[in-house]
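Incident review: delayed structure delivery

Summary: a single-chain prediction request sat in the queue longer than the usual turnaround. Root cause was a stuck worker, restarted by the on-call engineer. No data loss occurred. The affected request and its eventual output are reproduced below so the record is complete for anyone auditing the incident later.

Affected input:
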Amino acid sequence: MSDEVLLERCGAHVLLVKLNRPGARNAINVAMTQAITAAVESSEADPAIRAVILTTTVADVFCAGADLKDLAAGRGADLVTAAGGFAGFVWARRRKPWIAAVAGKALGGGLEFCLACDMVVAGRGASFGLPEVLRGLYAGAGGAFRLPQAIPRAVAFEMLTTGLPIDASRAYELGLVNRVVETDEVLNAAVQLAEAVSRAAPLAVVETLALARVANQKTEQELWQLSDELGARLQQTEDFWEGPRAFAEKRSPLWKGR
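Output delivered after worker restart:
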């Protein structure tokens, strides 16, 4: 793992993935792309990990997007992987929930990271924007279509065409973030959210999240079919029966993830 991306376990079931390139405002370069790819793969492979938090060691910047120096040098293709897209992340297949913990600026690829995550916790001083058009570029890591899916269409169009950011309170009003807390409480709040997720049955979380992620991409008939298939799979697991049993016995469930 590169020093530009740090991994840290938080308790038994939560993994912290920390962007750590302070001298470049966490702009994504080739080394970070490789390290983020490895972090996704390791979190998916570890059955003990039930939730992942994407955060940063840099107080005022979550991520400034792609490293424009790499783009200018013709290394833009190296910031994209076949399996994960930009930074090895934005379209990576991730079964487990990811939470973005954003204390500062999430611009360009930084906002696209948030849109690729499942939940976002923001500090009061955080801001979110897609300034690509101001540099003759476009939000090609999913922002151009994921932002209109995440917030009202007219607001998304304004952000995409002006490049102007919004603050954390506005992002919360629009449903772009889950929680807004004091800046120095962002990571703690994200950990609390991840721990709440981790207390649920891991297979039920994974299956439910997979269905929720495609809710806007399928017809209702297709969603009912997927829902029925999900239920049939869960009924074949030990955890499906452990939950009701633990409730009846007035004890905490012991999830086995199988």
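Verification: The first strand starts at residue 5 and ends at 10.
Action items: add queue-age alerting; document worker restart procedure.
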